[in-house]
Specification:
Elements: H1 8-30, H2 36-59, H3 63-86, H4 94-116, H5 178-195, H6 201-208, H7 212-222
Length: 223
């Protein structure tokens, strides 16, 4: 059989609860609440304190829970201090009698708000379900065009044969001096360095001042 372990915190809680319970009873009795009514006051204070603490533990910190927790704590501590000789229990002031008489309604309102008020945080709404993309429309492929078969051509109606084409006579080769070719090569290199593109025949002819056939011969040697 397991031994019963005594928890120091639990013992302190029992002692504090018993003393606070007795002080609240004595204060309620001194304020004119006699009989069972005096015993109901400490139960009401402790229940409100527990309800506010439970709301703080389950739903997180909120102004409502902290407000009623502090109200119940002040009522419990106030009774402990008032019955410690600082207050004449035989001559309780009128304002304290009013507070004690109004406590049941105040505690009922606090317990109702703690039990039925929604939590301060708003739960995140679930992400909407993704909408699938519509299927692309497939256009029908056009039917291949059927070309009509050519009618047979009689050999007698065939088109006459074209005369043979003789190649155009080539231009005679132009002799270009080597010095002119070297100068043209420098002009072409300078043009390509400045523009980034090779020089064309018309530009080379304009730069050198030569006729078109000589410019073609120079370009052929530069290639």
């Amino acid at each position: 059989m397991a031994r019963l372990r005594i928890d120091a915190v639990l013992v302190q809680a029992v002692i504090a609860g018993a003393l606070s319970f007795a002080h609240l009873h004595d204060l309620a009795a001194a304020a004119g609440q006699t009989g069972w009514k005096a015993w109901a006051y400490p139960i009401s204070v402790d229940l409100l304190l527990v309800a506010a603490w439970r709301r703080l533990r389950t739903d997180g910190p909120s102004r409502l829970a902290w407000c009623w927790f502090l109200i119940a704590l002040v009522a419990s501590l106030g009774a402990n201090v008032a019955t410690a000789g600082l207050l004449d229990l035989d001559d309780v002031p009128a304002w304290l009698r009013i507070l004690v008489a109004a406590w049941p309604a105040l505690a009922f309102m606090g317990g109702t708000l703690l039990a039925h008020s929604p939590a301060g945080h708003i739960p995140a709404s679930p992400d909407p379900a993704p909408v699938p993309d519509p299927a692309p429309e497939v256009e029908p492929e056009p039917a291949p065009a059927v070309e009509p078969e050519p009618a047979p051509v009689d050999s007698a109606d065939a088109a006459p044969a074209l005369p043979p084409v003789h190649p155009a006579p080539t231009a005679p080769a132009v002799a270009v001096p080597a010095a002119l070719v070297d100068h043209a090569r420098k002009v072409a290199a300078d043009h390509e360095h400045r523009t980034g593109a090779p020089i064309d025949t018309d530009t080379l002819r304009a730069r050198l001042g030569v006729p078109p056939h000589m410019a073609d011969a120079i370009v052929a040697q530069l290639a």
